[in-house]
């Protein structure tokens, strides 16, 4: 669970050292990106809620939360637990689905056998989002109560905390979560367009309706649901970014001129040009600019030319050593945005760097940062450096992906992973009985393969303590953009 009470933009402090790419990395792969890719997708199976399928690979998990939604006479079984607890939060779940879909849209062609697993990970989320949006002008945005959930440390399979259902509607709008849900459904429709056209059509039709609701009834979902969603997934950045992002995805999925017109008319009031350089579950502005710049760079939509300049501004703020750099890096070279779950920004930024490099390459263009020219190759080098740090090229020689490499976090902040599995211990473990596992120094009995934790601090330190959720908790939205980045790297080093 990400508890940000204050969003301090650490990114405003400039980097202390310049970025020097290692020349020998040009020809040699420093890591088995293919193995990391496979694991990064397998992780999602460990986060599944609901009735597990026969081909479930993360076998220490069992069925859980099989009556979700019944209190409201609606079927909300399925979907994902966002992180190390047992709540289903619709806002980060939708963002996870959008980013998994974008990973497949840009790099699925390079994934070979893994693309089917990635599609299954997406579908586990979108099947749930279709259930959550089945009634017009209503979206079920959360199942479970975080506060009562946090009073217990228990396996999802044993869960006996209240499974309250929370929704948004015309009277209590939530343009942020609604537009993100529309983005997820629209992006996923592109993933399934060729392999399952009927499902794709269902997704895009629903996306259209959900976006209309998001736009017509405007408001932040954390206004009406403040005690429920704050400080966990409070909408700090407002809902304007999601409306722009949702419209960008619907334009991409449908090709309809109405969405392009919407972007042109509403872009300025939705903060299209405001500077920010954090991309994650809360703020989608940077992602929307990148996606819209593709319309100009790749599809040659002239009216989107300004988004190239806006995307360039983001790039210049990330690249160390340029006069516009507004990003902090650890001494070991890791992009550092926030002390709470920083790795989510590392993975999302790495994905954007590789994706933008792809767009620039296809348009034979580069980025100008003041006097310096930044080429697609520079973007790829920086992204690779970030992913390599995550996989073990860091001062601690620690892989921050569980189950990858010889040295990885053994005590992650994750209930199911830290308690014995129901195969090993079929008897129920009561709510508070599990806390002995939280405070134990023993390694987690169940390896949540592929989970990427919050990561090291600003000084490259990592305690590997279960109680330290800021550094030791994994999250679905940390892994989702990494899937695309790893697919690119595995392919570029001939591993796929």
UniProtKB/TrEMBL annotation:
Single annotated GO MF: cellulase activity
Entries under InterPro entries matching the protein: 6-hairpin_glycosidase_sf (IPR008928), 6hp_glycosidase-like_sf (IPR012341), Glyco_hydro_9 (IPR001701), Glyco_hydro_9_Asp/Glu_AS (IPR033126), Glyco_hydro_9_His_AS (IPR018221)
Active site positions: 413, 464, 473
Tree of life domain: Eukaryota
Residue ranges of every copy of the Glycoside hydrolase family domain listed in the record: 33-486
Keyword Hydrolase: yes
The protein's name in its UniProt record: Endoglucanase
Reaction(s) catalysed (UniProt annotation): Endohydrolysis of (1->4)-beta-D-glucosidic linkages in cellulose, lichenin and cereal beta-D-glucans
Record bears the keyword Heme: no
Family: Belongs to the glycosyl hydrolase 9 (cellulase E) family.
UniProt xrefs under PROSITE patterns: GH9_2, GH9_3
Enzyme kind, highest EC tier: hydrolase
Signal peptide, first to last residue: 1-18
GO biological process: cellulose catabolic process
Enzyme Commission code: 3.2.1.4
UniProt keyword list: Carbohydrate metabolism, Cellulose degradation, Glycosidase, Hydrolase, Polysaccharide degradation, Signal
